[in-house]
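SEVERITY: medium
COMPONENT: batch folding queue
REPORTER: lab tech (J.R.)

DESCRIPTION
The queue accepted two submissions in a row. Attaching both inputs and their returned structure tokens so the on-call engineer can compare them side by side.

ATTACHMENT 1
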Amino acid sequence: MIASLLIATSTSIQANNNIEVSDSLSKIDLIDNTSLTYSSPSIPEEMNFAGSEIDLRRFDRREKLDKEILAVTYMHSTTLQMIKRANRYFPVIEPILKENNIPDDLKYLMVIESSVNPLAKSGAGAAGLWQFMPSTAKEYGIEVNGCVDERYDVEKATVAACKYLKNAYAKYGDWPSVAASYNAGQGRISHQLNRQNVTNSLDLHLVEETSRYVYRILAAKLLFTSPAEFGFRLRSSDLYPQLKTKSITVTTSISDLNQWANEQGTTLAFLKMLNPWLRDNNLINRNGKEYIIQIPTEDGLYYDTESIKAYNPAWVVE
């Protein structure tokens, strides 16, 4: 049917517009050039997540992971941006996780929380790479007010996430349960483990969002381990490099951030891009708190695509 329509269309074009179709363009060429090919990535029989071996042969687990792998594979623009951004932010996040004795795999929790977008904000009010709610952020040492919102500070938010994850691990003793609690809350996971009389959080009956959560993390790990196997073939020059900046320490209030930025040789726009935790046009600092503000360097304003290196060589196909 499709081939007939294509052939009829090409014949009509010739008759009405005197456009010649090349003799080399056969019927099969017309079909091949307009066909799309989709594939289903393979599902491993087991995976290691933060030291826990997860058996994926059981039908429910296999199909849940399959669903998330298909989602990450065919949400092309989002997935491509996640890999590009990871080249900028993984080098910042990984050392903080290591310093706090948090397994490296927990960075994939951040991936699915925010799609590696430090400006991400949910409809419920969670913000930043780790998607802290205001009350939880304050509980773990993050400042949130009209002038400053440190949920958008990559380093400070990661440190706070480490505190949460360590606290949860002390309660559960396994990282999959910790990950589930990051989505549902520790109280809910603990209550449901007791109520449903199971010891493995992957065996819980939960609302769909939480039920999918750990499998989304596993899918992210598989993707970042080898993007090319999922059809994502990037070059080093496609990735976002770490930005070159200089740090300025501030311990006083700044009444006009626009004027202050100009005095530093930059603009308010660049100041807000590099320091999204600055939420207003001033900085109120009555207690002499130390803030570190990033300012772009001259050479940091421009891309040098030839010098961009892949943080993980597995992300690129040169």
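ATTACHMENT 2
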Amino acid sequence: MLSSVLKLVGSGTLLVLVCCVSTTRADAAVFRDRAAFNAASQNLHTIDFESVQTVDSIQEIDGLFFQSIGGSGITSGQNGNKLLSVNSVGEITRMTILLPPGTTAVGCDQFTTPMIVSISTGESVTMDQSNPSTFVGFVSDQPIQTLVIMLDFPEPTPAALVDNLSFGQRRAGNEPPVPLLLVTTDAGRAVALNSVTTENEPFHVLSSHNFATDGHTRITLLLVGVALTPADQGLVTVQVEDAQQHVTALPVEATGPAKNISWVSQVTVRIPDTLAGAGNLNVSVTVRGKVSNKAPLRIE
């Protein structure tokens, strides 16, 4: 089991997301050409390391976590561009990058040879001087939890140089991506925050801390797998379902990117009067006709 921590800086909330590494091979497609990888992917986010301020001890960038046995830092490439340098310890160079939930496409430019690049679903590529391309990418129909860059030969083992780390979702024809509602690890409940106080459940229909004159509570839900802007509000619907399978729509009042983490989107909804004392409900989000997973939240 692999545990990764997602720090939502804007909300001040710490979420621990646990991903179970699959024990079955997903037969991900391997790409050595970035253009072909881009065509097979969607909703891609790229870290080019140019804006990274920390010179050494890289542990987290854009909500992704970097675990290296020898440490890592930022160095300059031949063209003066910034690269991620993964240091070796003894005869081993190894870094594990913990990817966001719902990632099904990942790739990077890798400038040290030889080097082995692999993903959690089992696929692996050995990059050596015989390879004409410095790019390697993977696209899978199963979640990819980690990207590993490592080498235990030759001696002395070189450091790894990495650039343009891209991650997103597999493209299925012309179908839009499926949203994934973030949930907590302790009970698998929806990550939902009061839009004013950033407190989590239970929620109430009315709140004394409110920017709106109607006094109704607004809650913010967090999604991955889709890139929402304020203009997408009309393309998003949210509903909750009770134990008797009665469905209630929650009016969507805002959509957009989450603060400081490029791959998280947020949807803000208003709790209507009809849900007073509703108790446990299952919430889901639909974006461009694609329905997310369902997750429980509580309204008292």
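NOTES FROM REPORTER
Helices lie at 34-39.
No errors were logged for either attachment.
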